[in-house]
TrEMBL record:
Name of the protein described by the UniProt record: DUF2267 domain-containing protein
Pfam families for the chain: DUF2267
InterPro entries on file: DUF2267, DUF2267_sf
Entries under Gene3D superfamilies matching the protein: Uncharacterized conserved protein DUF2267
């Protein structure tokens, strides 16, 4: 891996690769690109369902490069969306993913939520989940 020569940037590139590798493995994806696509889609759909202050607090916890992915294209005046159902959440992820994405968007959401819970402070992540509609709060729980 090439180095940028700026310590903070080199660190965030390395940290982002660690996250993407974990996502790739957790979801059984074939590449870091697919892991990036899943992470980006889930982060955007999650972000758009959070109140403004909560979305900003969550973004501040993310590694620098992932934070940029999270904020990319954000229209905060249009958030939070009024969607309250798991099906709408999953449909929005599906629309954000590239065509013929190899896994189901619900599986992608569950895997990303598990990674977020592992990588971030669990107490803060649980507080974040408390701001989501009830049907979305258990996404980090494995499907039964």
């Amino acid at each position: 891996m090439s180095e940028i020569g700026v310590t903070a940037l080199d660190h965030t590139v390395q940290e982002t690769n660690i996250w993407l590798k974990a996502i790739e493995q957790r979801l059984g994806l074939a590449s870091r690109q697919q892991a990036y696509n899943a992470l980006r889609a889930v982060l955007h759909v999650l972000r758009d369902r959070l109140p403004l202050a909560t979305a900003a607090n969550f973004g501040a916890q993310l590694p620098l490069l992932i934070r940029g992915i999270y904020y990319e294209g954000w229209q905060h005046a249009a958030t939070p969306t009024k969607d309250r159902h798991l099906e709408e959440f999953v449909d929005d992820i599906f629309r954000q993913l590239p065509p013929q994405f190899p896994i189901d968007p619900l599986k992608a959401a569950r895997g990303i939520f598990e990674i977020l819970w592992e990588k971030l402070d669990p107490g803060e992540f649980d507080k974040l989940m408390g701001h989501l509609p009830v049907p979305l709060r258990n996404l980090r729980e494995p499907a039964t």
